[in-house]
UniProtKB/TrEMBL annotation:
Signal peptide: none annotated. GO terms for cellular component: gamma-secretase complex; Golgi cisterna membrane. The keyword Transmembrane applies. Belongs to the PEN-2 family. It is found in: Golgi apparatus, Golgi stack membrane. It comes from Poecilia formosa. The chain crosses the membrane at residues 20-39, 60-81. This is Gamma-secretase subunit PEN-2. The lineage of its organism: Eukaryota, Metazoa, Chordata, Craniata, Vertebrata. It is a multi-pass membrane protein. It holds the Pfam family PEN-2. Keywords: Membrane, Notch signaling pathway, Transmembrane, Transmembrane helix. PANTHER family: GAMMA-SECRETASE SUBUNIT PEN-2 (PTHR16318).
Amino acid sequence: MNLERLPNEEKLTLCRKYYLGGFALLPFLWLVNVVWFFKEAFMKPPFTEQTQIKTYVKRSALGLLFWVTVLTTWITIYQHFRAQWGEVGDYLSFTIPLGTP
């Protein structure tokens, strides 16, 4: 998408939609929001909607950081303790590894 062609009001609307969409357990939308709107929020000359876009970009970055932290922690714990959890660890797995750990 070429953001240069959109008026500032539509940029703000799109940024807000991606920000709110991240709350639907879709942190990828926050990543897209940060990548797409970073230049608009922090590197362009000031315009009316820029302060709101900055807010959404900052909050999207914080939400993304939170999800990356949570998922990394969960993956690390699961990989480390899956064998000790026995059947519960196997039930939580999509693919059950063969053999013994």
